[in-house]
């Protein structure tokens, strides 16, 4: 569908499934476009009668790029973030991105949705569920964290790889190879993905949009927003936390910390899953999502009938 105006920004949105079905809002993570949602997940949810809404976050994919806004270098900003004025250095925060997500619901005329966020999207989801409880039927936070300073950090080798300063890839194939290499570091081992199909998927994503400046601004938003426990404690909606035991980018303690601070949250740890949504575990992920949604809907129906 065409771009929509959400929170004053042009946001690219795709919808699937029946328009009158219960809405599911999918919020993607850092540097990832809406095309990274597994097709098998979208098709399963739509087949179960849900209206699935996916969108490109600001500064990524086909959504608006904030070209005029500059962000500090991630490594330097991580140090500066301890200072009182640091937040003002970020072009925007995760709170702003949560308002984008609410704006998507507004533009589509959706009163409330089951909110599903992965990685940075799960951080945005926590803020949305806390600040706009009337817009979230439930929250599912996948491979994400409260970002509390006391939690285990990402594997340093992976952080170095993500933030490494390199010359720009000279060819499209070099960029594809580099991206596949990074996913190899953070993703699930023996994920069940066909290598040729995965390469095609990465290539299609690169052709759709390559915009490194936006990624830097998204990283700045995460750093500037800081710890999210203050949001997790205020979430009253039914919350499911899903995390892989082998996640090297966002260790599973981050997900467990969300579950520890959201009242009555449930945590599901998937053994050997990394920082991705791999074919190997897709059926289980789908079953967990649908089971969570159905439970929330059944509780709402009982409350309405009481």
Structure description:
This protein is an alpha/beta fold. The chain has a single domain (4-305), classed as Rossmann fold (3-Layer(aba) Sandwich), CATH 3.40.50.1820. The protein is built from eleven helices and nine strands. It has helices at residues 39-47, 74-80, 94-108, 120-131, 156-163, 172-186, 195-208, 212-225, 229-232, 252-261, 282-305; strands at 4-6, 9-11, 13-16, 23-27, 51-55, 113-118, 136-142, 239-244, 266-270. The protein has a seven-stranded mixed beta sheet with strand order 3-5-4-6-7-8-9, sandwiched between helices. β8, α10 (252-261) and β9 form a beta-alpha-beta unit. α1 runs parallel beside α11 (282-305), α3 (94-108) crosses α4 (120-131) and α6 packs across α7. The mean pLDDT is 94.
Q: What value does the average pLDDT take?
A: 94
Tally the structural domains.
1
Structural class: alpha/beta
- CATH architecture verdict: 3-Layer(aba) Sandwich
How many strand units?
9
Please give the count of helices: 11
- Strand composition percent: 5-15%
Give helix and strand order, one letter per element, not per position.
Answer: EEEEHEHHEHEHHHHHEHEH
CATH superfamily: Alpha/Beta hydrolase fold, catalytic domain
Please estimate the helix content: 40-55%
The major β-sheet equals:
7 strands, mixed
Q: Give the termini separation.
A: 40 Å
CATH class category: Alpha Beta
Rg for CA atoms: 18 Å
- Examine the coordinates and then state which fold CATH places here, giving the name of the CATH topology: Rossmann fold
Q: Strand sequence of the main sheet, in spatial order?
A: 3-5-4-6-7-8-9
- Low-confidence stretches are none
Quaternary structure classification = single chain
